[in-house]
Amino acid sequence: LTRPKIDRGAAFVRGLFERGGDAALAALWSSVDHLPTPNELDAPGLWLARVGLAAGDQPLPELDELPDIPDFPDLPD
Fold first, then answer.
1. Which residues contact 56 (CB under 8 A, 6 or more apart)?
2. What are phi and psi of 32, to 5 degrees?
3. What share of the chain is helix, strand, coil (3-state, %, to 5)?
4. Whole-angstrom Cα distance, residue 77 to residue 71?
C-alpha cells in the first residue's frame, strides 16, 4: 500500500459516511458485490447509487412528541 492509496480509501469511506452514515458503512462490508469500483472510489455517490442507498437515507431521529398537524379546511364543491 502506498500513501496515495490509503488517502484515496480514507476519502471514499469519509464520503460514504458523510452521505449515508452508519447504514452506508454497514452496506460496504455486507457483500463482496458491494466492493467499490475504481471509479466509485473517487465518487462515493456512484457507489451509493449502485447499491441502492441514496445520499441522506439516514433514519430520522425519534420525536419526543407528535407534531401538531392542522385540519385541512373544507373546500366548496
1. 19, 20
2. -65, -25
3. 55, 0, 45
4. 18
pLDDT tens across 27-46, in order? 998 989 999 999 999 999 99
In whole angstroms, what is the distance from residue 77 CA to residue 50 CA?
47
Q: Which residues of the chain have pLDDT under 50?
A: 57-58
Among 77, 68, 29, smallest CA distance to 51 is for: 29
Long-range contacts from 43-51, C-beta under 8 angstroms, 24+ separation: 44/12, 44/15, 44/16, 44/19, 45/15, 45/19, 47/12, 47/16, 48/16, 48/19, 48/20, 48/24, 51/27
DSSP conformation class of 1:
-
Cell numbers at 28, concatenated: 460496504
